[in-house]
Structures are given as C-alpha cells and as structure tokens.
Amino acid sequence: FVYSPLLTDKDWDTAVTFLPASDNKKLEKKRGPGKVGIIVGLVILAAVLALIIGLLAWHFHFRKDLKLQKIYTGSLRITNQVFVDAYENSDSAEFKSLANQVMDQLKSMYSESPELSKYYIGSRVQAFSEGSVIAYYESEFAVPVVQEAAVDRAVSSLSETYSTKVRRAQQGPLVFDHVVSSALDTRLFSKARTSTRFAQHARSSAEETIKSPGFPDQPYTPNSFVQWQLRADPGHVLKLSFDTFNLEKNCSNDFVRVYDSLVAMDKHLMAEKCGFYSPSNPLTFISSRNVMLVTFVTNEEENFPGFRARVTQFKLACGGKLSGSSGSFKSPNFPSYYPPSTTCQWDIEVPNGKFIKLKFPKFMVSTGSPNCPGDNVQIVGKSTLCGQQPANTMVTVNSNQVSVVFKSDSSQVDRGFSATYEVFEPSDPCPDQFQCNNKRCIDPSLRCDGWNDCGDGTEEKNCKCDASMIQCRNEVCKPMFWRCDGINDCGDDTDELNCGCKIGEFKCKNDQCVSEKLKCDGNPDCKDGSDEDGCTRDICKVSTFACNNGKCITKQNPMCDGQDDCGDNSDESSCDCGKKAYTKSRIVGGQEADMGEFPWQVSLHIKNSAHVCGASIISDRWLVTAAHCVQDDVKIKYAQAGTWEAYLGLHRQTEKQKATKKFLKQIIPHKNYNVYTYDNDIALMELDSPVTFSATIRPICLPTATDFFPTGETVTISGWGATREGGAGAPVLQKANVRIINSTVCDELMNGQITSRMTCAGVLSGGVDACQGDSGGPMSFLTNDRMFLAGVVSWGDGCARRNKPGIYTNVPKFRAWIKEKTGV
Ligand code: 4AZ
Predict the structure, then answer these.
(1) In CATH, what number is assigned to the domain containing residue 369?
(2) Could you give the dihedral angle defined by the CA atoms of residues 755, 757, 761 and 765, in that order, rounded to the nearest 10 degrees?
(3) Per-residue pLDDT tens for 473-511?
(4) Mind telling me the catalytic residues?
(5) In this structure, which of 184, 209, 590, 688 has its CB flanked by the most CB atoms within 10 Å?
(6) How far, in Å, are 98, 102, 123, 582, 820 from residue 136 at the CA level?
(7) Is any ligand 1 atom within 6 A of the Cβ of residue 589?
(8) Any long-range contacts for 582-586 (C-beta under 8 Å, 24+ apart)?
(9) What residues contact residue 791 under an 8 Å CB cut-off, 6+ apart?
(10) What is the rounded end-to-end Cα distance, in angstroms, of the chain?
(11) What is the mean pLDDT of residues 443-472?
C-alpha cells in the first residue's frame, strides 16, 4: 500500500534584506579635488565602510541562523514488547499507539542533549519488525549551519549510550537498546521529488514483484523517490532478484539502493546501483534478516526503462562440515551478491596424514585494504583474504583440518567467492610437477621456456637455456625467434643487442628488422613506422585518417573519440556502433559472454540446421564474415544466399526462438580470396530486410583503412566454435582476450604464410584461441570506448597450440572494398 510523504517540506530559505542605498546628492564637477572633492571622497569612503560593516553583521548575525533541514534515520530495539502482526500495518491502532510511545520517548531521549533538544522538530516511526520489536524511525532537526557537526556528534554519542547498555528512556514504559542512527543522504529527501512508499510481505507460496513506476510500458518518471519496505516471515531472509535493470549510467542522477533495514541507513546500505545489467548476469541481493528496503531515486534528466525484481523469502543456511579428499563450497548466493551481517564457517577434514590445498577460482569480497576490515575470508591459522584476488588463488594448509570462515559486515556487499579443496601428500605437494614459490604446481616441461606459467615467474629463474633459446643476462630464457624483433623480451634488452638484418628483411630506422614484404603495406610494422616512410600513397600518410574534406589527421584512432578532428565532423559521423547496451562486470580457453556483451555477433546457420560460422553486424543490412565460410563444397551450396539463415541477438544456441532470424539477399565474397592460402578471407552478406537494432542487436564500428592495431594490444574474440581442438561447439557464446602478435614473429611461427591482409593474435603460451566454428566472427578492438572490427576469424594451425597464434583477416585493408560494395 501507499504511504503519504513523511515530512512536509519546509522552506528554510531566509529572506535577505539589502541595505538601503545611500541618498547621493548630485555633485557638481570641478577641475581639482578641492573642498567638495574631499567631502565626496569622505562620503564614498563612509558608504563603503558602512557596506562592509553591514555585510559582516549579516554574515555573523543572520547567516549563523540559516538553518539546515537534517534528517537522521535510525532503528532501535524495544526489549520489553512482543511483536504482533498488526505492527506491519501502519494504519492499525496498535501501530499508531506504539509509534506514539516511541516518538514520545525519542523526544525525551533527545531532551537529554542540549544540542538536540534545541533543534528537534519531530520524529516519525516508519515501521516495526520482529525481534523483540525493532522500530525504524526518522527524526528531523532544524540545525543552524554552524552547529551541523555538533549535532552529528550529539546524535552518534546518544546512539552509543543506548547501544552499549539497556536503558529505560526517561519517563517512558519502553526499554530501548541498540539505538543506531545516521544522517540521511540529502539526495533522498530533495524537495523537488514526488515520493511514494510501498510495503510488501513476501510469502513462500506466492511471488511478489516490485517495479519502477511505468515499467514496462513507459520510461520511469523524472524527479521521483520510491521506497519499498519488504518483509519476510520471521526466521527467513529476503531475496531480491532483478530480471530487468536498465537505469541511467550515472549513479549521481538515477539510482537504486538496497538496504538491510527498513529505513535508509548508510550503515546498512548493501549496494547502490545504476546502469544496465544483462539478464545473463542478473543482480540479486539477500538480506541478513527478514527485512529489506529498496529506494529508487531519479532526477529530471534522461529517463530509462527502469527495473523489475522478484521478491522471495527463504531460510538462509551456510557453512558446515566437509570431508573426503576433495570438495567445494561458495559464499551464499554466489555468483550474485552475498548477504551482509553474515558469518559462515566451513570445517574441512580430510583423511589423516594428508594436507589440504584450497583454491579460489573466483574471489570478490568487498574492498580490500590492510588487515581486511569489513568483509573477509579467514583460513583459520593461516591467512585472511579480502578484496579482489586473482583467479585460482591458492592456499595450502599443512594439516588435515582447516576451518574457513566467511564474514560480511553490515554494509556494502559483493559477489563473493567459490572455493575447492583437495588433498596432497605432505612429502610431495606437487607430484611429478614443479612447485612454484606461490605453491602452484606446473608441468616440469614449462620450466625455463620463456613463459611465466607460475604467475610469480619462479620457474623462469636460474635457467640454463638450450640452443633454441636466447640466454638472457638475467638468467631467463626466451624463444630464439624473439631475437631482434624490436621488443625487449628478456627485460634487460639482451635479446635486442647486436641485431643486423637477414636477407629478405628491411632494416628500420630504429635498427629493428621486419620482413621486406611489410614495407609500404600501409601498416607501420617498425615501431617507429619507418617501413612506411617515403611510400607513394594517394591518400593520407600511414596512421592518419582521411577526412571527407581532404584533410589528413595524424592522431592515432581519431574516429568516434568525441572530437571533430577533421573540422567537417567526418571522423565523428557514423559512430552509432561498437557499444554494448549492458553494464558491466568457443573459443578455447575463454569464458561465457554476458547476454548482449557482443550485440554485433551473428550465428550463421545452414537453414534448419546447425551453427556453421560467425559474422558481425556492420549496419542494419550488412554482415561481414569470412570468405572461406561461403565456398561451395560437393554437398552444400555455401556460396548461395538461400542456403543460410542468420541469427542476430543470439546468446544460447538452444534459444534460437529468442533471437532475430534473418535470411540473406546476397553474398559477396572477396574476389581475390585464395582457397589455398586464405589470403583476402572476407565476405559480405546482405540481409533480405533491415534489422531493427535493440539491446542485443547493434553494429560494430569499422576501422578506417589506415587504422592499425599495435603489437601487444589486447583484442577480444567471440564465437560459438569448438572449445578445444577437434571438440564440439559451445552452447553459449564464448569470449576470450588475446593479444596482437608482431607480423614478423608470426610469419616465422607460421612458416612464411602471413600476408599483409592477415593479422595474428593469440596467447603464444597456448590455451586461448579461436577454433572451428568461430570463423567469420569478430576480433573486436576497444578504443575510444567503442569496439571496432579489427579482424575476422580466419584460420590457424590447430587451436590454442603453443606458438601457434590465430590468424585473422586484417579488416582495415578491406575498408575501401566494404564501402564500395555496401556503402557502409
Ligand atoms: C576453423 O577451422 C578455425 N586457431 C578457425 C580459427 C582457428 C583455427 C581453425 C584459429 O574455423
């Protein structure tokens, strides 16, 4: 039901009266200052002095009386009362009677403090909950500006007095303890806002929902303040699950706050949220007791669709006894937010004589700082973890027993952790493996191979290198093919000393050597770009943008960076691309993408059959894919538009009905595609009708012809391809980050098969790569806050093998061709 707004808005603006203007007489002009001049001067001086004195008097007399409206929210426990159901209804006689008593006693409590009694206006009880009876209230004070800090101190000292000992408030029958209060954020009681309050009780049988005003038919209303008081049965906790959450990005304008209380107390603020959350990565919150408060505040600008959340109740249980040789456990509600004010203890006992290895694949436990105040995970007798820990953080325990205690404090929750444990022999912590200093165990063949597999580099120290490796002076080994590639791989430059160039190589001005083939290919392959110097080019020089007005821009990535670099805005037009709709936080070695994270990703199916290739949306009519995906074979006419159906906005292959299916009008493979070398592996597909863009369907930005993606830069690949070489396709869209690899190095690794129409990217230590079924899909590069189509998945030597990067079609090379064929 709806409450009326609590406090009538008071206007504390103090009227300011200006000093009367001095009655200046008209004065005659004279040559010199003379007598009259002196008099005039004195009069002006006197007027100025009077003005200064007046202003000072106003400042010290009136301004100190300027009053602030201060609201403190609080809760207190009434220990000598028993909760009755009627207390849930603020219209009931029982509620009103107890509320009046609480208000009386609050008044008498404030009268104990001179600062508070002087400025006290009134209180209002907002709600009661069980235990014995907890009252939630707001108290209002009109405080002179200069007294604000003193009043804050008086309120917290009063709370301290009542929270430490049980006290009967003067002249009242109620006994209070646990009086807690804090100043209410001014954003929660702005005068301009219309305010609405709801109270709802979750039941086990039925499902309650809460939603922003107007949802789902219209955007939420501006300048509103809505509050939901949520309750569950005693002994239960509440779960709030947002199935839609789409608010403005900036939390200082519109936000949702979730409190572990029935009043908006910062001490019990679980989280403040804004922005857009993907349904595949939903927000859910759990309370520590049977109450929760949700507040929704909007300002006058930009109204978004809003949110809807289910409210359920359940009994929270966590921790327990764990035994056996291995097992797992996780924080309550993982991977969504754990409840505040909660303690869970897991007592692990493995067979006698064995030790325990704990591993945390994911760990996000509130903010970390020295000594982990707030929320933390204690591995009793060993260490305490908090904050964000690297994936697979490991802790070993030299005992067959250990207790792991997770504690959250009263505010600011996070996504928590997952953990596994397994046993190890005390005499052999890493059977047949190398033990790193950080206790990780790795395959012994990974020692001294130039890659940091331990994570702490221990296995790359004190190495004797074999002939295929460079012996760096600092005693690490690096692969020989990294010698003289312009990158300091050793860390002490040993690998870049005494570098001449081989036959077929070009010597850059910085002494780096690059393949002769790369000279004047439009990409600066030398770090200093000297391989592109002096090349005759009809348009702008390398690494610049050719504006429509003929101007050349030398700045890197000038497109869509919000600045009109060209002067005719041509570098800022066509920028409605490359942005995902959602907030946030196969491919071999990747992980599941969030829904809508790659809204340009397309799944190409043979009609009424399975996924074959990926593609990327570049406009409402055109897709880019790989030419090798559209080559006829003896059985299937892949080159014909009628063979295909394209799924746009697809996340899970089994949920095709949720995606947009499109047929094709035509396919344009690049005419120079080479079936043997995969050179020019790119094709365009025209949809038979334009697609409507949405949160899950959007185009990616196209790079300009002169864009280039520097060695070492991170790019993201996505697709439903195989999750290991020779394996099956992924049911859910996968993503992985890989790095751009120097073309010269790549050409050597791939036995001279790399052309300037190809870009290499991967993780040379292996394990992360595109694979069969990812072909045609995007390699996305993030710049200026947008994703650009840097490459198209093309080919590779197997998948995710060591020193075998993935090969991608170099999209900038085809920018003019795309424009010519599609107009995009
Ligand atoms: C493929 O067969 C394929 N490792 C795509 C990419 C890679 C290998 C194979 C890169 O579609």
Answers:
(1) 2.60.120.290
(2) -10
(3) 888 888 776 777 666 778 888 887 877 776 667 778 777
(4) 628, 681, 775
(5) 590
(6) 12, 10, 10, 36, 68
(7) no
(8) 582/276, 582/277, 582/278, 582/281, 582/695, 583/249, 583/275, 583/276, 583/277, 583/278, 584/277, 584/278, 584/281, 586/719, 586/720, 586/721, 586/722, 586/723, 586/729, 586/730, 586/734, 586/771, 586/773, 586/774
(9) 715, 759, 761, 778, 779, 808, 809, 810, 811
(10) 54
(11) 83
Contact 68, 148 (CB under 8 A): yes
Q: Are residues 725 and 769 in the same domain?
A: yes
Same domain, residue pair 416 and 304: no
Are 661 and 610 part of one and the same domain?
yes
- Which stretch of 200-209, 542-551, 670-679 has the lowest confidence by average pLDDT? 542-551
- CA dist., res. 624 & res. 776, Å (int): 7
* Boundaries of domain holding 347: 320-424
Contact 605, 625 (CB under 8 A): no
Report yes or no on 683 lying in a domain: yes
Assess whether the previous peptide bond of 335 is cis (omega < 30° from 0).
Answer: yes
The total domain count for the chain is: 4
Residues 147 and 198 in one domain: no
**SS3 assignment, position 89:** coil
Q: Is 793 in the pocket of ligand 1 (CB under 6 A)?
A: yes
In testing the pocket of ligand 1, which one of 763, 769, 793 has its CB within 8 Å of the most ligand atoms? Answer: 793
| 194 shares a domain with 180 | no
Is 456 among the domain residues? no
Residues 255 and 325 grouped into a single domain: no
Phi first, then psi, for residue 756 (nearest 5°) are -75, -10
Domain boundary (263, 287, 314) is at: 314
Give per-residue pLDDT as tens, 303-345.
Answer: 789 999 999 999 999 999 999 999 999 999 998 999 999 999 9
pTM over 0.70: no
197 and 167 assigned to the same domain: no
Look at residue 391 in the predicted model and tell me its pLDDT: 77
Structural tokens at position 620: 């409402």
Strands 320-322 and 342-349 come out as parallel
Tell me the C-alpha distance between 789 and 80, whole Å.
Answer: 68
Q: Is 208 found in the same domain as 302?
A: yes
**Rounded distance from Cα 776 to ligand 1 centre (Å):** 10
State which of 424, 451, 480 marks the end of a domain: 424
Q: Is residue 19 part of a domain?
A: no
User: Ligand 1 within 6 A of 625 CB?
Assistant: no
CA quadruple 338, 339, 345, 349: dihedral sign: negative
CATH number for the domain spanning 178: value is 3.30.70.960
Report whether residue 772 contacts ligand 1, using a CB cutoff of 6 Å. yes
Overall size of the chain counted in residues = 824
What is the DSSP annotation of 761-772?
A: EE-TTSS-B--T
Q: How far away, in angstroms, is 455 Cα from ligand 1 center?
A: 28
Decide: 808 in ligand 1 pocket, CB within 6 A.
no
Of 531, 583, 10, which is closest to residue 542 (Cα–Cα)? 531
560 assigned to some structural domain: no
What's the confidence (pLDDT) of residue 45?
84
Asked whether 323 and 350 are in contact (CB, 8 A), the reply is: yes
Instruction: Map tokens 């056996």 to a residue.
Output: 324
- pLDDT value of residue 452: 75
Q: What is the pLDDT of residue 329?
A: 98
Q: Is the CB of 265 under 6 A from ligand 1?
A: no
774 C-alpha to ligand 1 centroid (Å): 7
Most confident of 450-454, 467-471, 632-636: 632-636
Residue whose C-alpha is closest to residue 262's, from 311, 228, 296, 309: 228
CATH number of the domain encompassing residue 745 = 2.40.10.10
Distance 587 CA to ligand 1 centre (A): 9
Q: Which helix or strand (DSSP H or E) is residue 377 part of?
A: strand 376-379
Cβ atoms of 386 and 366 closer than 8 Å: yes
Shortest-distance Cα residue to atom 11 of ligand 1 = 772
Give the distance (Å) from ligand 1 centre to CA of residue 751. 17
Closest ligand 1 atom to Cα of 807 = 10
Q: Does the structure show a pLDDT above 50 at 424?
A: yes
